[in-house]
Specification:
There is one protein chain. The chain is an alpha+beta fold. The protein has one domain (3-152). Helix content is 42%, strand content 23%. The chain contains 6 helices and 6 strands, in the order H-E-E-E-E-H-H-E-E-H-H-H. The chain has a 4-stranded antiparallel β-sheet with strand order 1-2-3-4. The chain has a two-stranded antiparallel ribbon with strand order 5-6. Strand 5 (80-81) and strand 6 form a beta hairpin. The longest helix is centred in the middle third of the chain and has 26 residues, at 91-116. The radius of gyration is 19 Å and the shape is elongated.
Amino acid sequence: MFRKELSDRVQLNSQTLHVTLIGNQVEVEVQIQATYLTILNFTFLTHPYTFQISKWRARGQAKFYTLFHEKVRNQNEFGCILDDGSVQKTQQQKINTVIQAVREFFHCLDQILRAHQRSVIDYAVWYRERPMADENYSTYITLLVCHCIVHTNFMYPSATYELVEYYHA
């Protein structure tokens, strides 16, 4: 088995967050693995969902931390990026950074739900396919949210359809 696969199974941190999605209180179980693969388990409107965020694990960490620190953050809580671009964070500061990004992830999801309600998946597909000019923290988080929406069929209506076939007289 590969080292990364083993590390993805070792849990570094687990905690519960409470977020609001279109006025509904949602309890999110956050699991951060040793590689910083982040697994989000929650139930929304009676449907269970699991989002897996792998973009900021392993090789993606430096980019994630750099984008995260575009906004001025509390250095004691989140560490910092040095002038040479290197990351200066303790393990706890890395965990704090991921937890804060998860909060912002759900805030973004709430914004998308409020704006696009019944066409959330259509929006997510459109957002992922459109050309990106510059990547910043905002577009990075939004893209992660859209990936999770698409990969889980989030809020996809469970409709039954009446069969329609061509009738030739």
